[in-house]
Amino acid sequence: MEKLGVIAALAALAQESRLDIFRLLVQAGAEGMTVGSIAEQLGLPSATLSFHLNQLKHAHLVTFRRDGRSLIYSAAYPVMNDLLAYLTENCCQGDASACGVGECVPAPTAVGEPRHEAPARSRLGR
């Protein structure tokens, strides 16, 4: 990953709502989440959510696809893994494998199969 891409990704994640959104999408896995589900989970108004999703999209940290009238957002796992690799390439005296840092690969979720993930920190009640 080039240095400018790293800076853009870190800048995008340096804001609390965007970090919450990204973590929620990572937890959601490859199937992603609709904009409405993200807004509901995090208690964000749609205009605010749209702004933050655009920032994450600009940093290439999320992708989206259209499903009928819905937009489904997903974490861009290859970009996230490149960012992690960049940040840890010199850890443990140059042997990143000794640090136990690996790649994140989202597990496929069977249709209709219940998922049990911890919800992202809610913005409600803060």
TrEMBL record:
<dbReference type="InterPro" id="IPR051011">
    <property type="entry name" value="Metal_resp_trans_reg"/>
</dbReference>
<keyword id="KW-0804">Transcription</keyword>
<dbReference type="Pfam" id="PF12840">
    <property type="entry name" value="HTH_20"/>
</dbReference>
<keyword id="KW-0805">Transcription regulation</keyword>
<dbReference type="GO" id="GO:0003700">
    <property type="term" value="F:DNA-binding transcription factor activity"/>
</dbReference>
<dbReference type="InterPro" id="IPR036388">
    <property type="entry name" value="WH-like_DNA-bd_sf"/>
</dbReference>
<protein>
    <submittedName>
        <fullName>Winged helix-turn-helix transcriptional regulator</fullName>
    </submittedName>
</protein>
<dbReference type="InterPro" id="IPR001845">
    <property type="entry name" value="HTH_ArsR_DNA-bd_dom"/>
</dbReference>
<dbReference type="GO" id="GO:0003677">
    <property type="term" value="F:DNA binding"/>
</dbReference>
<dbReference type="InterPro" id="IPR036390">
    <property type="entry name" value="WH_DNA-bd_sf"/>
</dbReference>
<feature type="domain" description="HTH arsR-type">
    <location>
        <begin position="1"/>
        <end position="95"/>
    </location>
</feature>
<dbReference type="InterPro" id="IPR011991">
    <property type="entry name" value="ArsR-like_HTH"/>
</dbReference>
<keyword id="KW-0238">DNA-binding</keyword>
